[in-house]
Amino acid sequence: MRREEVAELAGVSIDYIVRLEQGRGLRPSADVVEALSRALRLNFDERSYLFDLARQRPRTTDKPATTAVAPLAQLVDDLSPMPAMLMNHRFDILAWNDEMARLLVDFGTLPPAQRNSIWLCLMHPEIREFYVDRERVLREGVAHLRSAWAAHPKDQVLTDLITELTGSHKEFARMWAQQDVKINGRGQKVMRHPDVGEIAVHFEVFMPLQDTDQRLMICRAADESSKSALKRLWAQ
Predict the structure, then answer these.
(1) What is the pTM of this model?
(2) Do residues 222 and 136 share a domain?
(3) 48, 83, 175, 202: which could form a disulfide with 100 (CB 3.0–4.6 Å)?
(4) Strands 84-87, 93-96: parallel, antiparallel or unpaired by DSSP?
């Protein structure tokens, strides 16, 4: 492609392109890097490389994942007997294995609109009382949701969810007003399971490089008594 073509497609001047080529002290903004990557028809890896060169952070997609990609859905199944599930940035639950369903709730029996971990923690009659330290779990979840909202300002479904919860649930409204921000990539939760009693689990959240709006959560027993409780649960 000629410089003139790249400049026109990216919405910048030819002189700007020349100065970039010559390394004359320019540091393009994230918007310009995105425009250049589209103009040059870069693939995912090339786009990431261009953002790294420009010392910019790639903008996240405003089209969140609504279904689990097949390899990740298979991985969720393969992780059994460890409870695992796949979510997007707004905590919509996209895939889960049998162990996660038995640990929390059978997500398959819920309407798709209710397969959201924040909604479940606030509204589901059983999950509402499930966590021993519910205040902390919910506060961290709301702080994580605020981070997602800032990163995806055009996600209308996420905005509508926040509006709904703020208007209908005083607990959520109070925590949202605190403006805490937190990324929950690792932690521990203690649960009161109705069948096997108290279970403490460590959880880890992973983000695939090529499907960055899908988050894989894996849980494992935090102590020996919890390991025994999980074994009893799987045996039922």
Answers:
(1) 0.77
(2) yes
(3) 83
(4) antiparallel
